[in-house]
User: Fold these one by one.
Assistant:
Number 1:
Amino acid sequence: MLVPVKWLEEYVTLSMDTKEFADQMTMSGSKVEEVRNWGENLEKLVIGKILSIQPHPNADKLVVTHLDIGEEKPLQIVTGATNIKEGDTVPVALEGTTLPNGVTIVGEDLRGEASQGMMCSHDELGITKNLIPESMKDGIWILDEKTPGSRFIDALPAVDQIIEFEITSNRPDCMSVIGIAREAAATVGETLKVPAITLEEAGTDWTDTASVRIDDPEGCRRYVARKVENIVIRQSPQWLQQRLMQAGVRPINNVVDVTNYVMLEMGQPLHAFDAAIVARQSIVVRRAKPDETTKTLDGTLRKLNDQMTLITDSEKVLGIAGVMGGENSEVTTETRAIILESACFNADRIRKTSQQLGLRTEASARFEKGQDPELSLMAANRACQLLEELEAGQVCPGVIDVYPQPATPRENTLRPHRVNALLGTDLKVSEMVEILHALEIKAHEADELIHITVPTFRDDLVQEADFIEEIGRIYGYDKIKATLMTGDIMVGGLSHRQKMEEVLKRTMSGLGCYEAATYSFVSPSGVDLIRLPEDSFKRDFVRLLNPLGDETSVMRTTLLPNMMEVLRRNVSRSVPAGSFYEIGQVFYGQLDEAKAVLPLEVKELVMGIYGEGNDFFVLKGMLIHLFKTLGLASPDFERESNHPTFHPGRCANIYVGDQLMGTLGEIHPLVAANYDMDDVRVFVAEINGDAVLAMAKIDPLYKPLPRYPAVVRDLAVVVDKMLSVQTIEILIRRQAGELLEDCRLFDVYQGAQVGENQKSVAYTLTFRHNERTLKDKEVNQCYDAVVSSLKKELNAVLRA
Amino acid sequence: MEKNLKQLEIEAREVLQAARDAKELENLRVKYLGKKGSLTELLRSMGSLPKEERPRMGQVANEVREAVEAAMNAARDRIGRLEMEARIARETIDITMPGKVFSQGTKHPLTQTLDELKEVFIGMGFTVAEGPEVETVVNNFDMLNAPANHPSREMTDTFYINEQVILRPQTSPVQVRVMKSTKPPIRIIAPGRCFRNDTPDATHSPMFNQLEGLVVDKGSTLGDLKGSLEIFARHLFGEHTQIKFRPHYFPFTEPSAEVDVTCFKCQGEGCSVCKGSGWIELLGAGMVHPNVLRNCGIDPETYSGWAFGMGIDRIAMQKYGIDDIRLLYENDLRFLSQF
């Protein structure tokens, strides 16, 4: 809401500078977004009257003009403007004047004719293009009759400050200058001065031969109509045009400008119909029929439905209520009489209509937030008063006011102790009442209660808490003392699961992985890129009804494609190596189709690594370390050759006990190609995060340090190349018995020194007894048992 | 004999003083003090002396032995020192060579920011509540007193799954879940992902993170809300931080306020971070609307409460000087590794 300060000052006295005022308004709840200066750097401009316009002797597109600027000798200006005529009054910039757009005027010779200044356009004087009246859009600013030679800024109110307020959706009453003035009065401690409305009226009462009927009482609560005759359509005076432009509205003509002015002033949207078009001067407010159409005054054919309210006469549609008038009934230069509508339409209906038509207007923006029906008549009269003052027409006696159920002010009570209890203040009842009065809320104390009558323009004040807020904000939140919470001591902290998630993240950091954060909504094509089969449950997406685009149209069912995108982005940006993880929700639609059933949300952990030094075993080692840190039993890895996302020879499922925890592996070459990473080896793990966190338990228990020395033996055997080391290790552990403390693979060799299709594997075996020093003999027995069963069961040959 | 002994002492001292390394020293020890060394040889010949001379000669011999041993020790110390010096000179390194590179990952800057926020509130007795990212319209709007025509319900603002299910545009439904399931006193924070129908640009992201807080207790006041947020702001931005409550409108709180903090960059002087105002808009807050309490089964006559909410992304951006929110979700390693 743009509010020119001088306009505001017509209704409330402000004895402080604008910045101070703006700050105070912000602190009482009308947030000031910005204070702008209107009409800067116009001091040197003067008013000129065009005395003559002659063709330029040497240029077809230029004319030579002479202007009276209040000096003895007329000023000569050469111009290319085409919208001027002799007798017009215009703003003139003399030599040496710098315009708001930074251009400095210099006297010059234009093809042999001297030009001693410039006639200015709106644009050149700092008015944005969308506010310039149509007739002067591409030409000189033609003013009303002014004294030549006077200063531009004295001749019209072109200098002001404009305050832009943010109006919250609960305060439609503040979408008007008077509404803001009311807040200002309460804030600065002044009284509101509302303009007195008096009308001359002339002619006969028009209501004898006219009528208004509301056939759609739900859509229209009140309809006030007045008639103005002998209309002369012309440009509005400059003061009015200035006001409108300052408030962000483009001047059109005197009648339309007056309706807009009153809307800005009081918050009541008005509409003027050309009375000649209204058949039998009878207006019917009704619902639209399904599939009815009408052309609005912007020239667009609108398709209507039965949830929209129309203004019609007995024969045709005149306009869409509260949104836009019809093209047929628009006020034109030919208009000789108007019917002025000031109505109260249903907020929900207007909102939906405006949405369905994709048509938002200043009127609809106000109606859809809720309108005070008590305002209709006052606003109609105010507009008539202005039309009289502008000599735009004669107001006919008589008002049609259809108002079947007049609004009654709401009564309410407020418990003063609740005010202080909720705000933490110590206000007296009289102070509370005083604040309410300042906001034009009637209030008095009786029986230890404050009895309140809420004005009809404050539909937002419904219950006690609402009044407490009013009192609090006008009293000043900054005056409320900051206190500490009372009540029982409460122990804060994280749940076990939350703590485990923190440990997980910390551990991942320690492992050199960076935490990624990707969108919860994804493209449905991600599951294609990772080659999930057609029947995969991860294709049963939870879909958005109104996504921003296909790329963010479904909730993710796996973090794997997200991780692939992260890796792709880093690879494509030439980051040579990277390790990432993300832990976050995936979403599975529930089988139950009942509408309010939420999807199942499961936490998933995904890891992805690539680049020098990274391979399958780095990733495997990370997982083992992570599980160990989180106190999980040591995981088992089982070869997985059928997962379509992974390299069939380099993929494993991870188990803790019987529970499948996830999968890790090198990405399948086809998937890598789908992500433009043909030349990069990428390793990814997808883990059930919920399962990990549920099993996590960090509960270290001290074990005494060994008091007796260990005996260490190395063992190297040659076995079949395809034999897994896990098979060997299981056998070693089984055969070595309880004395074996540790068994560690330290070398695998394939090559000339061992046979083809063979490999040599070497282990370090550590033996220890907790209660005594081991004898060589005992260790040898264990060792020999291992060697012989390796030979017997796995055909392993001891390497010399 | 005595002369021989003295002679030996003089000779030994001389050569020991000249000895250059441990090996030479060992040779000299063998030569003089060894089993077949000169001194031993001389002492062995003591048997041939007259009986009465033996004690005196024995004494002289001992003195000579001690003198030679002392010279030997002095030489050993001297040579040890020399060798140490030589070793140190030999082992001197170019300490300007690079250190070993260790690599540790980082938590996402949003996680780090959230961790800081959580720490402050946990210290004030708050626990951390969580809820689903996909929520019901009931929990997110109806229970929270959002008017039927509130703009946030529009499809232009909120992502819908169907008429009754949405992606939560705030973490407030977590408050509803907690109030419905917990008897006051309640003191929770609810961090999490939120979604709004915004096209991504430098300051907007369709997904972002929020942290909300809720306190419900007997006698909770707006003054408590101010006091608690003041403590929070000082923890987060420094001891001299001030806060400012501006009246505002939210459907779920009444009275409601927007809360500004003094700019942590310029301490309120005015700078580019705060666009010259000296203040940064940080939170929305207010007293829980009695309708909301009632909807969640809490009697507003017995209990009152306050709530607040803030955008973690925005705080992270201000804290780290990040000028484009999209960077947070790009996951470029060169970005992530800066935090």
Number 2:
Amino acid sequence: MGVPNSNPTYLSAVTSEFGGGGSMRAAAAAAGLSAPDGLAEFKGLSATTDISTTNYVVINSSNNSTYSTRDMVAGIAFLQVQLDLRLRRQDNYVYYEVKETNSAPISLYYPVGGGSSSLSTSYVTMGRFDLGGVTAIKMNWSETSTPAGSSGNIIGSTAVGTYAASDNSWQTISNGQSIGARMTAFATAECYQTTTSTCTVTMDVSARKTGYNDTTLGTYRHKLRAYAESNACF
Amino acid sequence: MKFYTDTTYTIERNGAGESTSITWTFKDYNNYEIQKVEKVVDAEGTKEMIDWPVLSEDDLVATRSATYNIPEADRTTLAHGETHPHNHNNEIAFQEKYKKWWNDWELSL
């Protein structure tokens, strides 16, 4: 977990992190520090490393990782577009996976290599942590408002994962278990109205295991669009 | 996390009655409930319970607006009818204009 980044720094904390059998010089050598040695040099240092990760879709940019859209034209129109987002431990990996809840006419994900591929009602892996024995995982989401606003939600759901994901909270899991959330955009229209609801959620997923730094896969961007058009007024 | 935007609009017109600009008002809410609401669903007056969002003004978190200046070629004297019976052809023609204004505004952002 690293040496605390605050004063005072204790030799016991340093040797607990870097070893050295009580010798500050030995601990400093393990930390890659040169003599002369001082406890203050160890503040905030960690002997651990990040968990290895693999990404399969576009992340960390203004571009979408996934995009789904559906239109409805009727006298009275109510429609939803939904996406299931799941973080699942299956040793020796933890997978971040996405699927459509119900099939939409246009539903895409954007691979790292460029272009697009179709999402379906079967899970597609967005990325993964390349490590077994992960003890806790986290989904951290936020909705990005557009100038036109949007209508919808993102809510943890046991219909998606073993446990309902709780926003920005570490959740303990065992092998084969998962946490999940469902994202929804909806639109309504009546009496010749038209309504467009464009909903964008950014999602950070993280994993935790002793001996490693808490590690995130990156920021995924999921966009849903629902369009409702009324062609009558009763 | 729930979010809902209620969108309304007003249209400015010139002396000839042509639409010159449209101003949308966006009211953002941080909660809503989807409830069964009775709606008339056809010209025969059939009523059905339809899923529909229900809002509380207590959940209003922001009110915003945006104005789009309508190019001359896209202006119209048509308007959305406020009373029954509606002129279907006029409503659809106005709707086509409205959709173009909205799409062009979104593309301009």
Number 3:
Amino acid sequence: MGRKLLTEHINVEGIHTFDVYRKHGGYASVEKALKTMSPEEVVEEVKASGLRGRGGAGFPTGMKWSFLAKPEGKPRYLVCNADESEPGTFKDRYLMEKLPHLLIEGMITSSYALGARTSYIYIRGELLYVLRILEKAIAEAYANGFLGENILGSGYSLDLHVHPGGGAYICGEETALLESLEGKRGNPRNKPPFPAVWGLYGCPTVVNNVESIATVPWIITNTAAEYAKFGIGRSAGTKLISAGGNINKPGVYEIELGVPVEEFIYSDEYCGGIWKGRDMKAVIAGGSSVPILPKELILKTANGEDRLMTYESLSDGGFATGTMLGSGGFFVMDDQTCIVRHTWTLARFYHHESCGQCSPCREGTGWMEKVLHRIEHGHGHMHDIDLLVSVAKQIEGNTICPLGDAAAWPVAAAVRHFREEFEWHVKHPQAATAPGAVFNKAESVLA
Amino acid sequence: MDQTVEKPQVQFSEGAMAEIRRYLSHYPADRQKSAILPILHIAQAEFGGWVSPEVMDKVAEILNIQPIEVYEVATFYTMFNLKPVGKHVLEVCRTGPCMLRGSDQLIEHLENRLGCKVGETSADGNFTLKTVECLASCGTGPMLQVREQFYENLDPASADQMLEDLKALTVRKPWEENY
Ligand SMILES: Cc1cc2nc3c(=O)[nH]c(=O)nc-3n(C[C@H](O)[C@H](O)[C@H](O)COP(=O)(O)O)c2cc1C
Ligand code: SF4
Ligand code: FES
């Protein structure tokens, strides 16, 4: 069994309440930081831990903090990104629902490090029930002197609020999130300036994922050196993986970075293997935006090495033969999955969620959805397959925010690795649209 | 008696106003517009699951901003219903990860049971059927949301049971007792 750092006490009865959480060592990092460390020391400690952002991009958290513009009379803000909308990802919801005080503790310690006096948790609007859990926990934290004026007599004061979104994937992108928090449509901003200079209300701001912030308490309480002992190389620590799709044991698992992918999928400690005794066809390892990989390539790299659950190993081979750890939204497809249909639902998702500001994304996502719909429903042409690749290429890198790339990559990767299946749909529309029909490379006499 | 279309009385209850004031206190005095999304959620719960132009005008009045500023926000975010809805809105996740676990079949089952298509309201006015994108519940799909409640790991039997329970349910507002 791997060691759990964030979720060690997650199943303790009543851990969502202040008293039980405190009894299990909760809020120790706030005491330690506010009483014995300067804000700069907290930042240095997080830097030394090697923690990388858990929202998807994997940018080193301590480094991001150190970019925050120096105080010059303006307020500074910490905003927690709890928008969790990346298809396949449900770890932040789990963490906030079960361990609300862990996130609050992380917000206090991190806000202290950044010099923020007011901080916000921006949670997706669909999770209003989780917002209520967090608000209850925040009220407890105020009542016990961990929020509000002069926390623990340290002279440091902090207000913490939860803010609901309104249903828009794009508000997970940090500048769209800030626009939304200001009461506007969620249109991403041009960067630079980055939020570290011009963020919420034009003030220096750090935006961090729920899991990133929830990791800070362990690092501060136990030291960066202890944290860095977990994981492998630049993939330090543990990561929450939300496992879904066609597996026996879907759920959220805290793994030490470095677990082999094969063990993660097949061992009973984690996913428990493929459901219904079937074989595995493909995996999307880091949320819907990362490239899909067929069974052979998710288990082993192109060089024949075992693929590990680390940032480096999953991206080994680049986009030709690799993928990304991303948000940790790991979903598995069995041999009965139609890749074309699945890719179409994802293209439809990105089209639906494009904010519409840039034409390559607005038009391109609609185009890809339409072409995939046509192929899936038996009206496709052979040249449609290359058309998909060409549209994806024209979106990639030509947009204000990374949603364009996120929409292009899954489609390009599906065609890259499963071209025969797309061709089969075009060549045999009747077979392909028959109820329950699935392309099977080994058995197919049609292809 | 003349039966004109009932328009919602655009007067927030005291409970709703208290919630609104609580949210307004979260943002700097010159940044009160930040409260627009929280207030729209409160408005939708208060006025039967949707926000009419009159309701949006009222929200603009509370925030002291132009009505257009509320319209442009309410139309951008998918959670706000801009037309009347049934007593309950079923929001079924249709995205890939849920599809792998049977959302296509769930949607078909609900359409048959309710006698209406996605986007429509059942004849008895009890249910509006909507599809939505990933609700961060992919490990427990197929699933759907009704107001603040998630219904997960649904199969035909549990979906039918859910429909029965919802029909009998008295809808309460978050700031009311026994919510
Ligand atoms: C379209 C899009 C959606 C995103 N959604 C989320 C999200 O739901 N949650 C999240 O933490 N980060 C999301 N991100 C990444 C954020 O922009 C940002 O990088 C992240 O919150 C930084 O936190 P971290 O450094 O702690 O990972 C998204 C990015 C893009 C481009
Ligand atoms: S890439 Fe898409 S989502 Fe991002 S700003 Fe442009 S149109 Fe909006
Ligand atoms: S795909 Fe349905 S909840 Fe994520």
Number 4:
Amino acid sequence: MLRDPRARGALILPPIIQLFIFSSAATMEVKNIALAIVDLDRGPYAADVEQRLAGSRSFTRLPRYANVAGARAALDREQVVGILVLPSGFSPDLAAGRPASAQLLLDGRRSNAAQITAQYVSNVLADEGAPLSGLTGASEALSTATPGAGAPGSTSKPNAEVVIDNWFNPNLDYQWFMLPNLVGTLSLGVALMITALSVARERELGTFDQTLVSPATPVEIALGKLLPPLLVASVQATLYLLIVTLLYGVPFRGNLLVFYTAVLTFAEACAGVGLFISSLVRTQQQAFLGAFAVLLPFALLSGFATPIENMPWWLQFLTTINPLAHMLRLMQGLFLKGASVASLAQDLLRLLEIALCTTAAAVLLFRRRAA
Amino acid sequence: MSDTRARMRAWWQQLAAIMLKEAKQVSRDPSSWIIAVVLPLTFLFLFGYGISLDTTVIRVAVVREDDGRDARALAAALTDSKWFAVVAAHDRGSGERLLQDQLVKAVVIIPAEFGRRLDAENTTAQVQVLVDGAEPNTANYVHAYVNAIWNGFLAARGLERGSPRPVPVSLEARYWYNANAVSRWFLIPGSMTVIMTLLGTLLTSLVIAREHERGTLEALYATPLTRGQILIGKTLPYFLLAMVSMAVCVLTALLLFQLPLRGSFLTLGLVSAVFLVPALGQGLLISVTMRTQMAAAQLGLMTGYLPAMMLSGFLFDIRSMPPWLQVITLAIPARYMNVSLQTVFLAGDLWAVLVPNMLFMLAVGALFFGLTWRRLHKRLD
């Protein structure tokens, strides 16, 4: 198969393009937020809130609407993710030192982006009740004119603070999380697809019987089918390693030997699953679907998109037999965390067990079907 | 007059013949039924339970080096919080090891002298928090939770000493269409899009490539069938298959996952049918372009399924992507489908939202079918 230059291109190029595109796409950060503002207060404090929102990098558009109904139409069309309503009485209340409240209406259809937006807005508003440093001259006069508002602020402890230190990824860069994950996930797809379609293709084209009458034993043929994915996976892994570290500047803090051991063991585990499927089915279409039916759960239950800890316990249990879950932990450990070989050994061992199981199962089934 | 009518009848008969042939092929293959019913159910199940953005309890280690009242109160506030499951660590070293071994997501260190520094006017009491930043989303939640607990602790302490902190501006957040902001409610419509893409694009991408690979394509061309008949005949069975599985998905979503359906079934059917135009069109285009099923499958996976997962706004918000990528997403039918489905399920039949999205889907679909048409023509020469 490697002789075909087009197939060779198809194996190397697309994964790299995917690496580029998906690492840019896959972010849980919420940027470029558009938030509608309905200012029924028209006072200095409302203007200050608006100004602070505009000053935050997260908000790019803050269209103003005269009333909630107008803003709601924009929200329905997904032009804004939420509506901040500053009620009348907002400024007078704050100026008098009374608690004030604002309303935030969010688009629950995009609940994740909406929740993060709510976090940002509440951060901005939390500062509003404290002494009003960000206010213009006029409103500063307001707050000094009402000593009640300033006094409690000064009694709070300014000499206590929380210092947060982010390990492994100091800037909480989402790409640093995503790229090592993509290295694992993309090689899963390739290793699985190559083997899943291999036998089915020969069966469909009628060349399978020819291979069987060759002097090689079925076990030898099966093992031969498992070799190409290992080769492709290690070539791809090398490419990924170079791109991720050199181009994206993600640190690689682990051991190279462990990295390649992990890649090969993982590819073997996936190839075993692929060959198993391929021996089971009759057509390539079926093989493709079979591979797919495995690929999706593997990807979903690996911690790739959403954390494993968020899943119910029975699904968390299933992740222990998912090779990708172990592979992703290894990649995170190797790239970001610089984990010691000893602490990676557990996942590596599990991966090896899975690889042995899938290979054995695939070869056995292949021999039975070939006989 | 009768001549044209006879020709019309012949045209329909031919179309019926190829459709019957394809339908037979689809329905005889037991895997088709697995595809239409079992696969969507499994996927929806996995999506529904497996994917959740609602953070559950986070494991955190607390190192308390101070034995004073304040330090205990803060540690207790951390332990009592519903967000954290607290593991006690004896000293910094063991706390850091827990973090390194991925057993906890964060370590909160309340240093020695914490209480005294808090009482004294001229010193700063610091609480140190080490967070596992490898996964930024969870790290951000940890930041927010720790800050909330810290502020609560300071407020309670101030209240005890008779100096309440100023009441800050309170924010009442209300989620329209999804009052509890359950992530499942917006993820399940997205999962349906992925499943429909799988059936519509991936399966059809193999249809003509298969004939080509087996060498039966020439035979098909030798029949009196026109291009239009071949195209319709090849796609209609898959269209029906996808609609059946969509129905299965919708029932599961409503009954098992308690998703509300605020729009009508009719609109839902219409949106699904419209989405299948670009989805099937894309599959056919791949199918006539690629010569082997393997290559077609790969291309279908890359241009159909993966973008539906990653670039459609299903998991990742499109507006947060870099501008060049946002432009690319305009060509992805799944993007329009996601918005439409989320709207029909959660908001209702908002035609102002649905009509533009459906028009986009039809436009992309027309493009795909047009290109397929041209490529089929070239093959004939």
